[in-house]
Amino acid sequence: MNNPVVHAFFVGRAVAEAVNEQVENALTNAFSEIGKFDAEQRESLRQFTIKVTERSDAQMETVMRGRTTTTIVPQGSQPVDLQATIDELRAEVARFRSELQRYRSRSV
């Protein structure tokens, strides 16, 4: 192989193969990082969606616990006197019972 042109050809070919391998490795690594980033973003979005759903459910639960017969009162917006509420409910039941007794006595 004393011919310098042949030697230059093989050197050029080896350089091209080495550059090709470097580009291939760089592209593989870049696509791998893009794939990891995409997966992380999807997981982050999924976690965010779960947190939002949980927060929404918790707020709905809180509102539903504070619900009365006519309005929705968020829990904590008004002081709740449990004994007064129980007394009001008992009085309401007593009123309904007396009205029911009057109705029944008129029907007979």
Automatic annotation (TrEMBL):
<dbReference type="InterPro" id="IPR040003">
    <property type="entry name" value="PG18-like"/>
</dbReference>
<protein>
    <recommendedName>
        <fullName>Thylakoid lumen protein</fullName>
    </recommendedName>
</protein>
<dbReference type="Pfam" id="PF20711">
    <property type="entry name" value="DUF6825"/>
</dbReference>
